[in-house]
Amino acid sequence: MSAPRTVEALIELGLRNRWYALCRSDRVRRGELVRLDRAGEELLLWRDAAGRIRVQEDRCPHRGARLSRGVHMGDRIACDYHGVQVDGEGVVVSVPGSPGCRLEGRRALRTFPAAEHAGAVFAWFGDPEDAEPAPLGLPAQLADDAWAHFLAYAEWAAPWTYSLDNLMDPMHGAFLHRQTHTMFAGKREAVFQIRDTDTGFVFEKTDQRGVNFDWSEWIDTGAQWVRLEIPYPPTAGPGGPFTIIGTATPIDADRHAAFFWRCRKVSGWERDTWRFLYKARLEERHWAVLEQDRAMLEAMPRDAWDRENLYQHDLAVVRLRRMIRNEAGRQLAARAERARPLREVRA
């Protein structure tokens, strides 16, 4: 990918120096090569002989052919065009057509730091490319074994920032989702406040809690998350309120991958009961809610932000957009500063 040159272009494809969720872990099976576009990058995902996930640029360092069209050889990938073999660290280990050539032994393929958590594959998108990855901080609901969760994954034809706006907008639950099994109750008017946290901020109704979709929390811990809570009746099984951890990853400027972990703090027989109820009764209903969001976001015009008239319920949306825009500006300024000595040498 050619580096974005404007704040708007960088935001469209996602901030750098962040971890992004790429896909479900079970999408990448042993012995197979998976081609994905994420955050403006053309990626190859595969597992090595030990089962470790590998995320690399989908481009042979020889002539630029797609490695995803190559051959999985356990600890390396062989390009199908000329047989060049590249390992999981991006090192060219063999050039069968010209043994001993200078390409052999070179680390010539961009390789992204990768990890797997909570049923998903994550990768670090650094700027510069060799930037040391920050630790991948997970919300407690995904890191603590006391929590059980299911991952819902979808790809939507809308900018990824539309999903962030949607998640940080609790008030839409009382309107768009008013006919659903969990968000039919409560007021349709509210006053909100913002409360700062160590990792972001909470946007919450001042006069209603535990009735509807009443608050959202923005979390930035090396990856970007939204946490929210939906009240559940006793018929939905043990575990109290239903916590959702969401994140979004741009595919390109007009599409994104959306991840929603549905979580409850349960153990023992209660965990088994809740997991059974989820698969038997609740999952279909939750997909119906997500379908309402998908249809709304995909129908929005791409210039929706240009003609908005925002009000008090949109304070979190405004704050989050400003934070992302400011960070994009800092990243572009840092990139320009790194390039300045090179320009001076050439001059």
Automatic annotation (TrEMBL):
| Keyword Methyltransferase part of the UniProt annotation | no
A UniProt-annotated Pfam family: VanA_C
Q: Which SUPFAM superfamilies match?
A: Bet v1-like, ISP domain
Which keywords are on file for this protein? 2Fe-2S, Dioxygenase, Iron, Iron-sulfur, Metal-binding, Oxidoreductase
- Where the record annotates domain Rieske, the positions are 19-123
Matching entries from InterPro entries are given as: Cholesterol_7-desaturase, Rieske_2Fe-2S, Rieske_2Fe-2S_sf, VanA_C_cat
A GO term, aspect molecular function: monooxygenase activity
UniProt cross-references to PANTHER family, sorted A to Z: 3-KETOSTEROID-9-ALPHA-MONOOXYGENASE, OXYGENASE COMPONENT, IRON-SULFUR DOMAIN CONTAINING PROTEIN
Q: What is this protein called?
A: Aromatic ring-hydroxylating dioxygenase subunit alpha
Q: Which organism is it from?
A: Bailinhaonella thermotolerans
